[in-house]
Design goal:
The complex is a heterodimer of chains A (107) and B (620). Chain A has helices at 7-20, 66-72; strands at residues 3-5, 25-32, 38-45, 52-57, 60-65, 75-82, 85-91, 97-98, 104-106. Chain A is α+β, with helices and mostly antiparallel strands and 107 residues long. Chain B folds into three domains: 21-236 and 306-394, ATPase, nucleotide binding domain (Nucleotidyltransferase, domain 5, 2-Layer Sandwich); 397-506, Sandwich (Substrate Binding Domain Of DNAk, Chain A, domain 1); 513-611, Substrate Binding Domain Of Dnak, Chain:A, Domain 2, CATH 1.20.1270. Classes of the chains: A alpha+beta (107), B alpha+beta (620). Chain A: GO terms for molecular function: 2 iron, 2 sulfur cluster binding; metal ion binding.
C-alpha cells in the first residue's frame, strides 16, 4: 500500500465528496515550490490523467501521479483539529525537513 | 505542521499564498462568521462550539465584553451594555429617538453623530459594531490558521449610503479589509446557488427574532437587482413567544403584573414549546408558581391559531413588496427562507401556499446569509480563478444633483449595476460666475425638497465667462460596496473639486420604499412641478440676458420708446413667472423674444461692423 489514511480523514474526505456532489476521488501529490522546496497537493479529482495511479484506501479513491508517488510512499493522511482550526495533515517518512509553518518540506 | 484543505482540481495554492477569506453576517440580534474550507462553506464556531455570537457589547471599566458574556449584563447593566447597535448605525439622534423611544442609553455627541455615554466614555455605534467584527475576525483567524485576506460583510438591502459607510468604517476600525458589502437577501440567494441558476425573480423571506424583511430580487445576466424591499422592523419570533406567553397567562388565570421571575419562566417555556411543536404535535408546559405547578398541554393547532395573525401580517408585506416590484406571484421562481423563525412549520406552509411553491429551507436559516457571504468572499479573495461568478449589486435609489430652480437631475438611475461611474456636463447660469455649488441627492422625485440630501460641495476658480460658456463635468462614482464619490471639473482650466459622500444622517427603514412609492404616486404632480420650475428658470435666464444686453447696448441701439417697450415686457415676464401658470409664463417668454428680436439683430450687425472695421472686403 502506497499511502494510508486514518479513519477520521477517510470520513471527512467522503463527506466532502458527497457534499461537493461530483468527483471520483482525492488527489494527493507534491509540487516543487515553497521555501523548503516541495509542497503537498490535496485536491478533488474530476478527471484522471494518463500517469495517474488509483488506490482504494478506506473506501476512498486516492489518486497519485507516478512522479509524486516516489515522494509519498508510506505517507499517512490524517484529519486533525487544533483548537478552532481543522484540516488535513501528512505524516511522510520521506520528509527530511520542513519549513517553519510546515506547508513545504524537502526529502 | 500546517493543516491543509482540499482544493478544487488544479487549484492548489502555493504555500504561504492561501488566501483566507470569511463572510460575516453582522446581524441586529446575532452575528456569524463563515468560510469556505475544502470547497465547503461552513460557519465557524467559537471555542465553546457556539456558531452564533449575540450582537451585544458591554463596556465595563476594566474590560469590554462581547457576545454571551455581554448578554448576561444586558439586564443588570443596561446603560453600559449595547444591544442591537445595528439599529443605531448611520442614523441621527432624531431618527433614533423617534424610532426607538425606550432605549435605556444616555445619548451624547452631536445630533448627526450620536454617541452613547458609558462608564468608559462616549461610544458610537460604529465602535460597537467594530467590537463585534473584531471578535468574529479573531475567531476566523484562529479557525483558518492565518490572517484574513479580507471579509464580505452583509447589510440589509434597504441600508442607505450612511449606514453602509458606517458599516465599512466599523470594519476599518476593526482592522479588517472589506472585500465587499453584500446585500443580505443576495447572500441568501448565493448560498442556494441561485446566482448560477436560471434568470428570474427570487423572493427572500427573512423572519428573524425581532425583524421581518421581504426582498424581491431579479437575477439578470449574473446581476442581482433589488426590485423592492419591505417588511416590519418590529415583527419577529419574539412576537410568537409573547403571543404564547399571553395565552399561558390567560389559561393559568394569572393577573398581570407578574414577577420578573415568573415572566421569564413563562417566556422560556413558551420559546421551548414553540421549538418543540415544530417537530411534535403537542407539548406539556409546566410553570412553577407559588409552590404550585401549573400544567397545560398545548397542541400544534393551538400554537398555529396564536401565531397565525402574525404570519398573515408578513404575507401582507409580501404582497406589497411584489406590488412595488411590479411582479406577479407566478413570476417568482424561488422563495428563500432566512431567519430562525422560518423553522416554524406554519410559517413554511403559509409562505409556500402564498407563493404557490415550496420554499428553499435546506440550509440552516440562521446561517444561510453568512454562508452566502463566505462563498462570495472565497471568490473575491481569488481562490477560484476559473470561476466566472462575478456578483453584482445595484443602486437602491437614483443619485443626482440639484440644478437651477430646485430640480433634481438624475445622474445614476436607480437599479444601475455597481460599480458604476457616470459623468454629465453642466454649465454656468450667470455671466461671470466663478463658483458652482454641487448638491448631491438621492431619491426618485423631481424636486430637491422631496429627495434626500447626501452632500454639498463647491467648485471654485471657474474662469469668468458668459453664462453657458463654461463646461463643468460632474462625475458620479459608486464603488462595489455601493458607496458614492462625486467630483466636478471645469474643463478649460482643469480646476477640480470632489467629495466622498459620508452623509450625516440615515433614512428610516421604510423610507426607501416610501420614497419609491411617492415617486409613483406623485409622478404627475412632479412632472407639472418640473415643467413650472423649468419655465421659471428659463424666464429668469431671459430676463438676465436681456437686462445685460440693455446695459451694454441699450443706449446706443434703441430709441427710448423701444427701450421702454422691452423693459415693460421684462417686468411683465418677471411678474408672471412668480405665478404657477406654465402656459402664461411660456407666452410671456415668447413675447419678450418677439419684442427684442430687432434689438438682437441690431446688436449682431453692430458687432459684425465692429469686427470688420478697418478691414477691406477682400480680406473677408
Amino acid at each position: 500500500m502506497a499511502v494510508t489514511m486514518t479513519a477520521a480523514a477517510a470520513e471527512r474526505v467522503k463527506s466532502f465528496l458527497t457534499n461537493r456532489g461530483k468527483g471520483i476521488g482525492l488527489r494527493l501529490g507534491i509540487k516543487t515550490t515553497g521555501c523548503s522546496g516541495l509542497a503537498y497537493v490535496i485536491e478533488f479529482v474530476d478527471d484522471l490523467n494518463a500517469d495517474d495511479e488509483v488506490f482504494a484506501v478506506n473506501d476512498v479513491n486516492i489518486i497519485i501521479d507516478s512522479k509524486s508517488l516516489a515522494y509519498l510512499e508510506g505517507t499517512e493522511l490524517d484529519f486533525v483539529k487544533e483548537g478552532l482550526n481543522e484540516g488535513f495533515q501528512f505524516t511522510n517518512p520521506n520528509a527530511k525537513g520542513e519549513c517553519g509553518c510546515g506547508e513545504s518540506f524537502n526529502v | 505542521m500546517a493543516l491543509l484543505q482540499i482544493a478544487e482540481p488544479g487549484q492548489s495554492t502555493v504555500p504561504h499564498q492561501h488566501r483566507l477569506a470569511a463572510g460575516i453576517d453582522l446581524g441586529t440580534t446575532n452575528s456569524l462568521v463563515a468560510s469556505v474550507q475544502s470547497g465547503m462553506p461552513k460557519t465557524l464556531p467559537d471555542a465553546n462550539g457556539e456558531d452564533i455570537l449575540p450582537s451585544i457589547v458591554s463596556y465595563q471599566s476594566d474590560k469590554v465584553l462581547v457576545g454571551n458574556a455581554a448578554k448576561a449584563l444586558a439586564i443588570s447593566d443596561p446603560q453600559n451594555t449595547i444591544v442591537s447597535a445595528k439599529r443605531l448605525i448611520g442614523r441621527s439622534l432624531a431618527d433614533i429617538q423617534q424610532k426607538y423611544p425606550n432605549l435605556p442609553y444616555t445619548f451624547s455627541g452631536d445630533k448627526a453623530h450620536p454617541t452613547i455615554a458609558t462608564v468608559v466614555g462616549d461610544i458610537n455605534p460604529v465602535q460597537v459594531s467594530s467590537q463585534i467584527l473584531t471578535n468574529l475576525v479573531e475567531r476566523a483567524t484562529q479557525a483558518l490558521g492565518g490572517d484574513l485576506e479580507g471579509v464580505v460583510i452583509t447589510v440589509p438591502a434597504y441600508f442607505d449610503d450612511a449606514q453602509r459607510q458606517s458599516t465599512k468604517d466599523a470594519a476599518q476600525l476593526a482592522g479588517v479589509n472589506v472585500l465587499r458589502l453584500l446585500n443580505e437577501p443576495t447572500a441568501a440567494a448565493v448560498a442556494y446557488g441561485l446566482d448560477s441558476g436560471q434568470e428570474g425573480v427570487i423572493a427572500v423571506y427573512d423572519l428573524g427574532g425581532g425583524t421581518f424583511d421581504i426582498s424581491v430580487l431579479r437575477l439578470n445576466k449574473g446581476i442581482f437587482e433589488v426590485l423592492s424591499t419591505g417588511g416590519d422592523s418590529a415583527l419577529g419570533g419574539d412576537d410568537f413567544d409573547n403571543a404564547i406567553v399571553d395565552y399561558l397567562v390567560s389559561q393559568f388565570n394569572l393577573q398581570r403584573p407578574l414577577s420578573h421571575q415568573l415572566e421569564r419562566q413563562l417566556l422560556e417555556q413558551a420559546c421551548k414549546a414553540k421549538e418543540l411543536l415544530s417537530s411534535q404535535d403537542s407539548v406539556d408546559i409546566d410553570v412553577e408558581h407559588q409552590a404550585n405547578t401549573l400544567t397545560l398541554s398545548m397542541t400544534k393547532a393551538q400554537l398555529n391559531a396564536l401565531i397565525s395573525p402574525l404570519v398573515s401580517k408578513t404575507l401582507r408585506a409580501c404582497r406589497r413588496a411584489l406590488k412595488d416590484a411590479g411582479v406577479s406571484i407566478e413570476e417568482v421562481q424561488e422563495v428563500v427562507m432566512v431567519g430562525g423563525s422560518t423553522r416554524v412549520p406554519l410559517v413554511r406552509e403559509q409562505v409556500g401556499q402564498y407563493f404557490k411553491r415550496l420554499p428553499l429551507t435546506s440550509i440552516d436559516p440562521d446561517k444561510v446569509v453568512a454562508i452566502g457571504a463566505a462563498i462570495q468572499a472565497d471568490v473575491l479573495a481569488g481562490n477560484k480563478p476559473d470561476s466566472e461568478m462575478l456578483l453584482l449589486d445595484v443602486t437602491p435609489l437614483s443619485l443626482g444633483l440639484e440644478t437651477m430652480g430646485g430640480l433634481v437631475e438624475k445622474v445614476i438611475p436607480r437599479n444601475s449595476t455597481i460599480p458604476v461611474a457616470k459623468a454629465q456636463e453642466f454649465t454656468t447660469f450667470k455671466d461671470g460666475q466663478t463658483a458652482m455649488a454641487v448638491h448631491v441627492l438621492q431619491g426618485e422625485r423631481e424636486l430637491v425638497e422631496d429627495c434626500r440630501s447626501l452632500a454639498r460641495f463647491e467648485l471654485r476658480g471657474i474662469p469668468a465667462m458668459t453664462a453657458g460658456a463654461a463646461h463643468i463635468r460632474v462625475t458620479f462614482k459608486v464603488d462595489a460596496d455601493g458607496l458614492l464619490s462625486v467630483s466636478a471639473m471645469e474643463k478649460s482650466t482643469g480646476v477640480e473639486a470632489a467629495i466622498e459622500v459620508k452623509p450625516s444622517f440615515g433614512l428610516e427603514d421604510g423610507d426607501i420604499i416610501k420614497m419609491l412609492q411617492e415617486s409613483v404616486t406623485h409622478a404627475k404632480d412632479d412632472i407639472q412641478a418640473r415643467m413650472l420650475k423649468e419655465q421659471q428658470v428659463e424666464a429668469s435666464r431671459v430676463v438676465e440676458g436681456v437686462e445685460a444686453a440693455l446695459v451694454v447696448d441699450g443706449e446706443r441701439l434703441l430709441s427710448p420708446q423701444e427701450r421702454t417697450a422691452i423693459e415693460n415686457a421684462l417686468q411683465e415676464l418677471t411678474k408672471i413667472s412668480q405665478s404657477s401658470e406654465i402656459a402664461r409664463i411660456e407666452q410671456a417668454i415668447k413675447d419678450v423674444d418677439t419684442i427684442t428680436a430687432s434689438f438682437a439683430e441690431r446688436r449682431m450687425d453692430s458687432s459684425i461692423k465692429t469686427a470688420l472695421a478697418g478691414h477691406s472686403v477682400d480680406e473677408v
